[in-house]
Design a protein that fits this description.
Elements lengths: L2 H17 L25 E5 L4 H6 L6 H13 L6 E5 L6 E4 L2 E4 L4 H18 L3 E5 L1 H8 L5 H4 L3 E3 L5 E5 L2 H6 L3 H28 L1
Parallel strand pairs: 1-2, 1-5, 5-7
Antiparallel strand pairs: 3-4, 6-7
Length: 209
């Protein structure tokens, strides 16, 4: 590990500790804990999801539930090593409504996304990745700083003012919600194809190193 990597790792740890006490919006009041991003400090690719789900809220780690399993499978098929990526969410507290013993996911609103964007910005500033993959509408809104249609921008690399490039795709939970098996298979293949763009960038960077 280089001195720069060590500094970044320490800085990410400090940022994670700071975010644990975030009160920028009201979501902290009902969530179990802040679920911060995880991954190597020198990650070339940052994967951004929407928010922690029920499993993530309890575990304190991003993408460890059903959507995380779907993401892991797709990353492997695309040729991306998740351990070499940094995985985070646009909103870092679980937003839900209780229904008996079940906590039903609720989509974050624009003020909540804006309130939490400071953590994403600071993660990006420390990581300095080459590519940010925005998975779903909430992630795209966070990454681009405005409402960004998925289908219109999906599958192409877009330059960001902050320096890295961005790639828009669906959130893996979208694949889980599809009722039709054929649609699920088709959309999963598209999702893998999107992630292959990230894999190609990682291979190119590895050759150049």
């Amino acid at each position: 590990m280089t001195p720069t990597s060590r500094t970044s790792s320490a800085s990410l740890s400090a940022l994670r500790e700071e975010a644990a006490g975030c009160r920028a919006c009201d979501l902290w009041k009902h969530a179990t804990q802040t679920v911060f991003g995880e991954g190597p400090a020198h990650a070339q690719v940052v994967l951004v999801g929407e928010q922690p789900g029920d499993k993530e809220d309890l575990a304190g780690h991003p993408f460890v539930g059903p959507a995380g399993a779907m993401l892991d499978r797709a990353l492997e098929e695309a040729g991306v090593d998740r351990k070499k990526t940094y995985v985070t969410n646009a909103v870092k507290h679980f937003k839900f409504v209780p229904r008996g013993k079940i906590r039903l996911h609720q989509k974050p609103n624009t003020p909540e996304i804006k309130a939490c964007r400071q953590w994403y910005e600071r993660e990006l500033d420390l990581l300095k990745p080459e590519l940010v993959v925005a998975m779903g509408a909430t992630a795209a809104q966070c990454v681009f700083g405005k409402i960004t249609p998925i289908n219109k921008n999906r599958g192409r690399v877009i330059d960001l003012p902050e320096g890295p490039k961005a790639l828009v795709t669906v959130h893996p939970s979208y694949l889980l919600r599809l009722p039709d098996e054929d649609a699920r298979r088709r959309e999963y293949a598209r999702f893998v194809d999107d992630l292959k763009i990230a894999a190609a960038l990682m291979r190119k960077s590895a050759r150049a190193a």
